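Write out the 3D structure for:
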Amino acid sequence: MSQTLDLSSKSDAKVFAKEMLVKGQPAQIRCVEIQGQTYSIAKGPVKVVRLEDEWYEDVQNPDRVIHELKSCSKIGADLFTFMQRLPDTEPKHHYYLECDSIAALRITSYEEWWNKRVKGTTRNMIRKSQKAGIQVKEAFYDDDFVRGMVDIFNESPVRQGRRFWHYGKDLETVKKQFSRFLFREHLIGAYLGNELIGFVMLANAGRFAVLGQIISKIKHRDKATNNALIAKAVEVCARIELQYLAYGYWDDSSLVDFKRHSGFEEFKLPRYFVALSRKGKVALDLGLHRGFKAALPNQIKAPLKGFRRLWNEWRTN
């Protein structure tokens, strides 16, 4: 439960602008610093505030943050949201909550994963990648690695039916944008000879690892590159004693089967929502607190996704 808090002290919130990547492109985002933690303020009809690095940090004092957000007129926020991180699945706070469905893998050792968690078909795929000559190893962020990244990114403007954010970027842009979080990342590369055909940027979140980026060349999809990358990521996690590997959200996309066959399972993590204004309360009451797209029923979302995939493929052919 939240702590009892003296809210009479002066606000220490600091509002400022910061450059971040939004859908792969640099953008100036309004932020607020509260007790040494940075929160981003999303644009839109309903201004939502969340911890900038919510996968990597816990909100230290939610009551204090809520007080500061309500007290500082410069912020003008409508909703505050935060989540509990792995492995905390039991609710700790009294605010309204819903659960985020996270795909994560429990790790005790590489051998345990290989023998007990991964499906036999996936083991065969990893063996297939080895027979095809794929070598997967930890890598360094040098110009050769970045050139390989650029080559992968510029292979196709569409991936998984969506416009690919990083298509068309040159070496200097990629080098700058992907160097921001190297302090917490392990790089893993998949090579066919001297050619980088896939890579993982594996981020250390303290209690668990995050697959921040996993991508491989479409022309080599028959070589099970991503399966081999996952295997190496598990090996690295086991070596540095991280007990979980998170792989984004557990949803209805085509990646669910890939995640399940690789040993991932669904974890439901509490996400809290707190109305900070009348508009925020209305959005919460109407179920619009996650945005208009999230509020659409699945029977509408599925056809829209199919149309988006066809549209993107038509535009690029």
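The CA atoms of residues 62 and 267 lie 22 Å apart.
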